[in-house]
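Hey, can you fold this?
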Amino acid sequence: MGFQLSPGVNVSEIDLTTIVPAVATSIGAFAGVFNWGPVDEIVAIPDEITLASRFGKPDINNYEYWFSAANFLSYTNNLKTIRTSNLLSTISATSDRLKISSFSISNTGTGYSNSNIILTSGLVSGNAVNLQVVVGVTGNITSLNIVNSVNDGTYDYNPLFTIPSGSNASFNIVNTIANTNAALIKNEDQWLSNFSTGNTQYGLFSARYPGSKGNSLQVSMADSATFSTWAYKSNFTSAPGTSSFAAANGGSNDELHIIVIDQDGLFTGVMGTVLEVYPFVSKAVDAKDDSGNTNYYKNVIASRSKYVNWMCHPAQETGISWGNMASAGVFASLGGNITTSFTSGADGNISTANVVTSLDSFYNAETVDISLIITGPASLPIVDEAINIATSRKDCVVFISPPKAACVNNYGNEVNDITTFRNTLTSTSYAVLDCNWKYQYDKYSDVYRWVPLNGDIAGLCARTDQQRDPWFSPGGLNRGIVQNVIKLAWNPNKTDRDNLYPVGVNPVVTFNGEGTVLFGDKTLLSKPSAFDRINVRRLFIVLEKAIAIASKYSLFEFNDQFTRAQFVSMVEPFLRDVQGRRGITDFKVVCDETNNTGQVIDSNQFVGDIYIKPARSINFIQLNFVAVRTGVDFTEVVGKF
């Protein structure tokens, strides 16, 4: 405590209650191909329902990835997921900027020619629209092509046509303009940084996330001037008008109704399904609802929509432009109901390099906590990168399945092909290789699919954590039952298992009447060692991770007897607890003058040596049945064989 310069009482509080904390051991990590959701952003997924909602349902292009993630979640509830994309070819669907507009000409003479008409439609400079006569005309009227030469909302053109005397001709824009500028909006953060201020070149709205699935979306909006003829007015209780907030601040005509439609049915399976409804939102940037929350339509969509982003305001008629303060006055009305469909969304071609790039987001152990890396149907470069991540972090394990061709319909070549694949992999205790794929039902498409088992094997480890502890083996009939299996790609017999297990491949076997079982618990470490077992590797991950976190609080303290004794008294109770839960058979902690010598202290270092005897799982059982004569005393024969 500091020295006091004058009389007084100083109260200090010193905390010596530091303990070794519990650490997460069941957090999955996965990078894969999905058709919806944020790109290159880690998202925590708790269950399959959320997976489908956040990243879309499986399809023919991604089901192997999708079900690898879903299968893991059938055992546990925390998967940190990254959607991979090709940022050079993945595009967000955007809506047209052109609003549907119409005008009419009344002719009482002998005909018009070289007539000049002014249209306010919000076209992008240089784009053309086609007009055609739709009602009340007979005679030689042809389609008219108008090219916009300015970008101020006013479009002058001189169409040549003839209207018979006494006819009324109504013209409608029949081809809205597809956006000429592609947008890639990876996630909410990128929209906020690059698009939230508005940009007319991309259209009124964009899909929330990139990909062709966004092309299914449609947005429609109406205000007080257009509600009566709006196709979607039945979804709202009454027409929009002036909000109480605008009225109180001297503004008017600020309210809008907005609706989001699944036009093509790609989200819901039913074309035209209403996805979202936003009633009585405001054109005023400072608008508040009755609860004091923002009611500005741009902000409401940004905070609540799961499907669309705002990109710019529509072209306005006379009045105050949208996005002004409520006190600005009378807000401009729509010239017609806007119903705009989304186009130009593209999935892009996902490469191995794209998946590797996504996986790299898991490298930093200080920023993202993971325990079990799932590789799905990954190719060798992806598997190698996952192993590099695990061996660099030293706090997680990679789960791998052999290539599909090595397992499915391989008819007797499975052992050779799987062994060949295993021999391409690095020897490491931070990776686990199974030997199979499973056939399972896809309820989303009503078909059966072949899916790799590594998501299930990682899930077995997570379930073991919840039922027992990470240092228990996930294999065997007690904890190794694989779920949701119609059949295995192949069922290895005893000879097959005898060939696979010595090289570090864990058999997955279906036993008659007992289910499909993980029948091994080896890592990919080739060297004979305690660390060639999953339970030992995961035991040391828990011990190292937990004690390392606790040890951070010794940094910048003095390397003296008090600090060393405090370290020992912190670690030993933790290890006794692990020992009591059958994780280790014995331990010893050394942190004194013998390993913290003067040289160590003068180098500003601190050394704690922790000796562990790990518990071992049973892999081989020998049962000896000895028959003896009636008159033999058992003490004569016990222990003699």
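Oh, and this one too while you're at it.
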Amino acid sequence: MKATLGILLAAWTPLAAQTPVITAAPQARPGGIAPPPQPSETGKASIEGKVLDALTHNPIRKATVTLSGRTFLRAATDAEGHFAFRQLPNGQYLLQAQSDQYPVAPFSLELGSQASVTIAADEQASEVALTLKPGASVRGRIVDEEGSPLPQCTVSPMRYRAGDPGPTMVGGAATPSDEKGEYRIETIPAGKYYLVARCFQSIPMPHALVRRDAVAGLPRLTYPPRFYPSSSELAGAARVSLPPGGDLVGIDFQMAPATGITLRGRVRGVLSSGTAQIRLRPQNLALRPLQQQGGGANLGTGEFQIPNVRPGSYELLATAQVEGRSYIAKTAVEVGATAPEPIALVLEPAPQISGSVAIDGDPQVPFNNMRIMMNPLDGQALGPLPQAEVHSDGSFVINASPGHWRLQVNGAPGYVKSVMLGDQEVSATDLEIGPAPAALKIVIGTKNAQVEATITALPAGANAVSGMVWSAGGSEFQQSFGVNAQGKAMLSLPPGRYHACAIAVAQPSVLTNREFRKALEGHCQAVEVSEGDRTSIQIPFVPADEAKRLADSLDADDSQVL
């Protein structure tokens, strides 16, 4: 079926002007807890301007504009798109506009929505213009193999991003189809997407001479996820481009039925005194967001069943929490055209890791504010993420299921210098936990390298400039930093090898995008520092248009995901 593309222009009706609402908003501490409100500095300067639609240049009403710098304020735009911040002290400020009707794609580089403004003590900056790109929409119809409409199906825009240990899927907003099989998705951030339809209906397969008590166990016809235009696999899918304000119509799906069986089993162990969650997930990591299924086990008998399971290779997992202790069970399952025999899962205690933290060179540092956390590298964790508080003597106990983990120590006065698991030195970025209890020793280093960074070829009068530095190895260390009027900054870095550069944007949120960092490496300076170093480096300046080109090229490149 042919898809046609129309462009939606946002309509705007002039309304009576309203006074922007300005509120003080203290920045949140890590963990989401806001500090007590602090009195805002005042002065005689002001900053005002408008927020406009990037396509139509119409004003945007009720957009939020955030001002940060020597004071932190928020304003809501009036009917003319106007905002104002007054009684400001002199200094450099960052303005950021956002609106629910103008969504921003994750890791995108939207230069028009932010601005850096420097004002003198009595200056009135009144011509600041911020722009927002409107979202796109997709609509079409979902039918079954005979062309009949399928209601209550969903269509989701998806992006695959490289991650640990393989591609993962990032979903967008989904909407159910109606009784005509018609669906519509609105306010999708502009970009390129895979579109996938999912229907959750199932019907018993035709079968003669069925016992009355056996109906529930019959194989059923289900509808596997369908990628646009007509594929059950990502390899046969086509990405569709959604420009700002675009309305993509005629994106239709014809679903194909497949056999689904009911997987049965029983959980044994400590279930009578707790609860168990069952999860069936594909061995293929990229399919897990689409095909993961699960539920709970019967507390009395431990029995569970998972309906509508399609043929394939899976992991079957059970997790339980009993009196603060984690229990786990895991087994591989091959599902064919007929149901396998009931599966027995025996819950076992998650390995208990007894650990200690030591501070290199300063044993007097208190441990009470430190917390050990572990994030899985081989898929989703079985149950809650492992974490533990560090006691005053540096000891801790943490439960983690067997697998590969990334270790981090929150609240530490430095960096993870070394990790010993038993008598073996291991990496904090890939810590393999086995099935048996173990001892973990963590040493925190405090002798960061002090690095004076100078930006080369910095354009005169450039205000919106952010420095960026990130680890060139397996570590996930990354940091943004500001620069002074001379293009200089002081950095404190753990020992290691890094990439560093400056980029002509006020807030480089794309730094969290691993693919963008990889594309940027050729424009940056490599630097290696040792413990306690004091050194100077020259880092290159990347213009905004080049940074934008690199960010856009990632969205245009299919090879990164297929």
